[in-house]
């Protein structure tokens, strides 16, 4: 059946997955204190104006701006002290023409006033009169009612990933719980026949499992909930049973490929035996990462990831991470929208083949004037140390046959 | 006592804190599965070579490279098939001159061989003989013993923040637990007299607490464990008691300032009443964020943060976050070392005062050729919406009296 599937371009692979996955996955309500890094499932609107009243941003005197026009240090404008605004109290009266009311930072602007003069620009003449030594414009030193968030306005849009400041906005508008996309639970099955766990001593010919742990970290880093299902060898029945269980218990399953032909064959046969629509592609025209398998069964994505750590990382970043991050909802924000958000000058010539997207681990440094430099990490893609030494990945688009030293390439940082 | 403290430069403020804080804080052992984002307390060294043997990276034939020199498609080099390497088994013999051994990807290189020919560059002549159609150099298609990590080599240095790939490296070298810096528990006390919680409806003159929630998120985002101690008004005794309790229960305390004079005064008096060395600075020559207070008591840092959300954010990022992140250990990695790691062209003129560092919330976009543009978000620093609209912060160094449109500034992304 494998023969039916040709290598797809990255965009085609994504489109194939999107066609078979539900557009929206369920959301859940969480306290705003648990919402950091999660994606909003719905627009969050302000249920009232914030602040709920015009508010002074300085300690000083609430005035009618008009009464201060022309005031200077040598020719102050004299006004009567009409009253005092106290914190957390509505002002007991209004500011009349020629009056000033004492007001603290954060105090509620009394009716009649349209500006606040900082205390530094006033001088006490007697108990009931002050001189204003500098004019203010209407609105000066005031936060207007609804200026932070206005009633009915979308304070944070659906799909927005919640950052620390957003918790402040949510609190400001009186929201204590939000509806966010559910965390994707991701089952990780290691299929390498020659693999042993990190707690074991490899016998001759054996090596410790690396990719399951890279994937465990990568799933957690993009907001999913990873679960390891251990190492399954090249036994078809056992792998099929484990995959079935993992699919039952999770929203997505990753098969972390072993490098031997036998294991690869078993893994791809098991994935291909899944129900409809089953395998969507077997092979993507990228390097590294070409042998990746993408499937959908019971509306859940299943990926067969290549055995080399660099390859597995690239495929994860390009195809798997976006599905986990979104939780089924569109993403917001500059960084989320741009997969390779930065540009850097490459520090050496790299070959590529036209018609294939190439991805290269790079060390990144900042030059004068802000130019970023991407220095390819030359290491075998079978080594985990190659990725560990890198700060990010550079992309060489499929139209190009390579890049020359000094050319600009798109990069993403890990 | 406040009068004794002049505004310190940022570096001086940091130096003052460092002098009074212990250089190392205790570490704890955690499973590698719980170590993501934590900082290593100690170097992690490889206890053996990884891989433990020379390993083929392709499916093919293990050979002596010398036997393939000069091979072409029209003039193949003919060699005898001497045996076969099976997965997870030591090869049962050695490769003699003029011999080739079948070997799978990941298989252990037999003694005698120094390279592997990919199966694509061989043709079967008869059962016991193959023709090699392309030469290999010694070492080709092989990962050498210890090439990923060599016995005794530092695989990950102390201070390194653990990323997903590092879990793979740790697994590869057989490490299942690591010693990491402890998570800093951070008590957050809100001191605004006019504040109410997000679950309450503000009466006239009241507003909901914003900063405690911004700080809660900011602490969590840099790896600390935040705890809210609620809103304490301008009652000296109550604030002193709450602060004492928070200091007892946490490794750091943040007083999130209210905006009224009364509350500010009480907060600074309470902080100043702490034990030795107590308040180290009251005021930093930065804008916004000038009124920040820094203190150390019982070897734990206490900060009085300004009431405006933008100011609180800036002070948190510059002074508080590094202490939480490090957990007492030095940080590694390009991003960690550079607080303002990127450069961008500013899109409008900004004034500043010489002798003061200025920080401006900015929206960031990527132009052609990779230039980043920083567009100042013009909003009052008392509004949370000002920070919510921004992608990051730009820094105008203290030597400058402003920046002109198109000038390059240092930025950090949120």
Question: What this model shows, in words?
Answer:
The structure is a homodimer of 414-residue chains. The first copy, chain A, has 414 residues and is α/β, with parallel strands linked by helices. The first copy, chain A, folds into four domains: 2-26 and 183-331, MoaB/Mog-like domain (Molybdenum Cofactor Biosythetic Enzyme, Chain A, 3-Layer(aba) Sandwich); 31-50 and 159-181, no CATH class; 55-143, Molybdopterin biosynthesis moeA protein, domain 3, CATH 2.170.190; 339-413, MoeA, C-terminal, domain IV (Beta-clip, Beta Barrel), CATH 2.40.340.10. In chain A, 20% of the residues lie in helices and 30% in strands. Chain A is built from eight helices and 28 strands. Chain A has helices at residues 10-20, 164-172, 211-221, 236-249, 261-272, 309-326, 334-337, 384-388, and strands spanning 27-31, 44-45, 55-56, 60-63, 77-84, 99-103, 115-118, 122-126, 129-132, 142-143, 154-156, 177-181, 185-190, 195-196, 207-208, 225-231, 252-256, 277-282, 286-287, 293-297, 300-305, 342-346, 350-351, 357-366, 372-376, 392-396, 402-403, 408-413. In chain A, the strands form eight sheets. A six-stranded mixed beta sheet of chain A has the order 7-4-6-5-9-8, with no helix packed on it. A six-stranded mixed beta sheet of chain A has the order 16-13-17-21-20-18, with helices on both faces. In chain A, a hairpin with a 2-residue loop joins strand 20 (293-297) and strand 21 (300-305). In chain A, helix 3 runs parallel beside helix 6 (309-326). The longest helix of chain A is centred in the last third of the chain and has 18 residues, at 309-326. Chain A is elongated, with a radius of gyration of 31 Å. Mean pLDDT of chain A is 90; it is low at 1-5 and 328-337. At the A-B interface, helix 2, strand 15, helix 3, strand 22 and strand 24 of A face helix 2, strand 15, helix 3, strand 22 and strand 24 of B.
């Amino acid at each position: 059946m494998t023969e039916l599937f040709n290598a797809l371009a990255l965009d085609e692979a994504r489109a194939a997955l999107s066609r078979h996955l539900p557009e929206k996955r369920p959301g859940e309500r969480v306290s705003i204190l648990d919402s950091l890094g999660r994606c909003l499932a719905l627009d969050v609107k302000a249920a009232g104006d914030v602040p709920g009243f015009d508010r002074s941003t300085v300690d000083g005197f609430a005035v009618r701006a008009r009464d201060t026009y022309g005031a200077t240090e040598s020719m102050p404008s004299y006004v009567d002290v009409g009253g005092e605004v106290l914190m957390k109290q509505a002002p007991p009266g209004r500011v009349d023409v020629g009056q000033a009311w004492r007001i603290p930072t954060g105090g509620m602007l009394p009716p009649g006033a349209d500006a606040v003069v900082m205390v530094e620009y006033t001088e006490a003449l007697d108990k009931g009169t002050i001189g204003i030594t500098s004019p203010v414009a209407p609105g000066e030193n005031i936060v207007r009612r609804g200026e932070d968030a206005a009633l009915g306005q979308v304070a944070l849009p659906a799909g927005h990933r919640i950052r620390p400041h957003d918790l402040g906005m949510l609190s400001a508008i009186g929201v204590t719980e939000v509806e966010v996309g559910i965390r994707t639970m991701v089952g990780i099955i290691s299929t390498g026949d020659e693999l042993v766990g990190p707690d074991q001593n490899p016998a001759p010919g054996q090596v410790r499992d690396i990719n399951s742990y890279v994937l465990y970290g990568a799933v957690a880093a993009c907001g999913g909930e990873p679960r390891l299902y251990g190492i399954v060898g090249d036994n078809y029945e056992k792998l099929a049973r484990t995959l079935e269980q993992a699919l039952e218990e999770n929203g997505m399953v990753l098969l972390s490929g072993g490098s031997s032909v036998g294991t690869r064959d078993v893994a791809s046969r098991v994935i291909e035996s899944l129900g409809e629509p089953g395998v969507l592609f077997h092979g993507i025209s990228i390097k590294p990462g070409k042998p990746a398998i993408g499937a959908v069964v019971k509306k859940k994505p299943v990926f067969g990831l290549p055995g080399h750590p660099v390859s597995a990382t690239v495929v994860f970043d390009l195809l798997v991470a976006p599905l986990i991050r979104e939780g089924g909802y569109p993403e917001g924000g500059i960084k989320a929208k741009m997969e390779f958000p930065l540009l850097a000058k490459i520090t050496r010539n790299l070959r590529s083949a036209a018609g294939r997207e190439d991805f290269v681990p790079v060390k990144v440094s900042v030059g004068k004037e802000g130019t970023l430099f991407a220095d390819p990490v030359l290491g075998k893609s079978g080594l985990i140390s190659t990725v560990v030494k890198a700060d990010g990945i550079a992309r060489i688009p499929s139209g190009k046959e390579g890049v020359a030293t000094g050319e600009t390439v798109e990069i993403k940082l890990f």
